[in-house]
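Supplementary Methods, section 5.1.

A reviewer requested that the exact input to the structure prediction be made available. We therefore reproduce it here, unchanged from the version used in the analyses.
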Amino acid sequence: MPTTLKGLFENIPLEAMMIENWVRKRLVLVGNNQPLDKALQRLNRHKITSIPIVNEQTGGIIGILESLDIVNYLSTVLDQDTINSSVARWDFNLMNCGQLLNTSTKKCTVMSNSASMYEALRILARGEHCVMVVDGVCQTHFQEREEENILGVFTQSDVIRFFSNNPYWIKMLPNFCKRLNEVGIFGNNSEQVCTVDQNVLACDAFQTIAKSNCSGLAILDGQRRLVAHLSASNIRGINRTNFQLLRRPLFEFLQRDRRRGWWTMPICLNASDTLEKAVLQFGSTRVHQMYVCDPDGKPRHVVTLTDLLRHFLPGEDQPKNA
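The structure derived from this sequence is encoded token-by-token as follows.
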């Protein structure tokens, strides 16, 4: 029986996590020649934030398209054209998925199914959202060519889900019973709270996400109180029919969004909550970030999955390269 988290993770191969994922849900793919509209449909239908792109001729995986990649492309479309123009709508939705993936400068990390969960955790804890797992022996590397025999994608959320399903192991965290304001999570997190007023246009808010390279925005009312959250994943509900929603004020966009089940109200933590409670709350709500607000409802801190995962590797420097 492992006595430390490191010992536990070193004894769990990624293959075991991939089998668990296959039981829970199948791997969702989209062809490289398919329009972006098709990728958005699948992201929305399966409630996922990234999707592997498959070469329709060879069957190999050429990379993973993330929601932020789509938002970055949307930003360039909006810069080149007005949101009123039908040209922007068609350019955005009919963009070839493979071509769009080629515009991303971020390379996916590829790992063998025989690698340990600990090795994957070290990569995810530095801010990578996911790693690609292949069936076969290989050194961990950044993807430079098509990958074959992909078993699945291992994500930050998978780590949190593991703890939610096995809460006993959380107690191996050195600071599991300490409060968030005692473990330094607010002083060391990688992101400041990015905010936007609820009255700005939705397209401008998405451009803010793209240009600031933040994972999401805290949406504030006139009194600077937190009323909603916008992330790159909200773009997955956009299609050719409702593209004009992007030129509506953000609060109207989110009201339409809410009725379709694409978003929920922001989830908040208290500074006095324990690290254990934070992990379990992330696991139960399946969100990627939460806010800590003051008594007036104004956001003061943001806690992300990356912030939590770094506490699973206490005293260890994060790797610079995969």
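The chain has two domains: 5-172, 185-310. These observations are discussed further in the main text.
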